[in-house]
Amino acid sequence: KQEVTQIPAALSVPEGENLVLNCSFTDSAIYNLQWFRQDPGKGLTSLLLIQSSQREQTSGRLNASLDKSSGRSTLYIAASQPGDSATYLCAVRSQGGKLIFGQGTELSVKP
Amino acid sequence: DTAVSQTPKYLVTQMGNDKSIKCEQNLGHDTMYWYKQDSKKFLKIMFSYNNKELIINETVPNRFSPKSPDKAHLNLHINSLELGDSAVYFCASSQDYGSGGANEQFFGPGTRLTVL
Description:
The complex is a heterodimer. Chain A is mainly beta. Chain A contains no helices and eleven strands.
């Protein structure tokens, strides 16, 4: 049974810092991995999707990596800003298309 | 244009009532999903439909009945609501459910259901 874990559960950093969010999964038989952002009381915004055959994806200040064999992904955020404050969710996609989510990392970027 | 939309955004009702949540996507996708986010913010798949056919049913109580009149719509009907049904329900869609392609999932804004 696939399980997804995100560490840390919460993170507070000063503005301008680079930071890394971690995601691990127990079954390497995944189709892809998606990183989402969720603002309080809002829906999910897709940030990056890495296919199982890829090692990383970049979008602006965000870079996501995938090491399928070790069951790990990281989301790197460069030069963090207060507007980056949100909960970041990692999800792996497996058979049937369903996404299995981690518990999320609540990020707070202080001005 | 909203890609995945849900109505209503908020739903407050009494225990024992029956309610429905509607979802529509205008992305031309074949596969749609319902997820539940509990009070601890944990998101879990409930159902998925591909072109109006049920693909996934994650041992959800049979009080929950999804209906897909066409591939752009997936509605969720809940009978005899219980306190534990209080949660945020998210609809999502993707091109299909197979292993090929990127198949990014796009989420609706969520419906916050409160059962009193």
